[in-house]
Amino acid sequence: MPGPIGGSAASFILGSRLMIFPGMAETRILAALSLVVALSGCNITGDCGDTVFEKTVDPESGMIAWGYVRNCGATTGFATHVAVGKPNSQLADATTVLIIDSDHGKATMGNPLNAVWIGIGWSGRRNLSVTYASKARVFEKKSSAAGATMTFQASEPYREPSVVVY
User: Fold this and answer.
1) 20 to 30 A from 42, CA-CA: which of 4, 32, 52, 63?
2) pTM to 2 decimals?
C-alpha cells in the first residue's frame, strides 16, 4: 500500500519519522511481528505430524476409522483424533469426528505416542462406536460424517482384575 508520498505502507503508518531513517521502519515492523509470532507459539508453517495408532474397517460397508495423534511441535500439546473415511480412502481425505487432549495430564493415556486412551470399533453397518478417557478435554465431536453415524461414550479403559494366588 503506497504511503502519502509514494512510500511504503510503513511510511504511511509511521508518517514523517520515516524521512529521517528511510527503510528502518520496515525493518523494525518486520522484526516486531516476527517476535510476536515466535513468542505466541503459533505454528504458521503447518508442520504438524500425524501418527496413526489404530485403524479399523467396517466389515459390512468397507468404511475406515483411524485413531491418530497430531503433534504440532514443542510449544503445543498432543491431540488425539478419530477420523472416518469412505472405503479405500486415505487419512488425508477422511473427516475428523473427535478431537481430544489429556487436559494437562488428567486423562488416561493410551500408548507411548502421547495419545489419550480411546477405543474405536464398528458396531454395525456404518455405525462407529467411540469410547474415550472420561477426563479428556473434548474440542470437537461429530455424530455423523462421510455417511457414517458415531456413538460416543466417556469411560475409562478396561483393566483386567488382579489375580490373587493363595
Assistant:
1) 52
2) 0.68
Q: Which residues pair with 28 in a beta bridge?
A: none
Name the residue with higher pLDDT: 141 or 21.
141
Confidence of residue 96 (pLDDT cuts 50, 70, 90): very high
State the average pLDDT over residues 91-100.
Answer: 96
Helix (H) or strand (E) holding 24: helix 24-40
Contact 149, 127 (CB under 8 A): yes
d(C-alpha 51, C-alpha 49), whole Å: 7
Q: Are 127 and 148 in contact (CB under 8 A)?
A: yes
3-state SS class at 38: helix
Q: Which of 106, 99, 33, 111 is nearest to 72 (CA)?
A: 99
Q: How far apart are CA 27 and CA 13, in angstroms?
A: 13
Structural contact between residues 7 and 14, judged by C-beta atoms closer than 8 angstroms: no
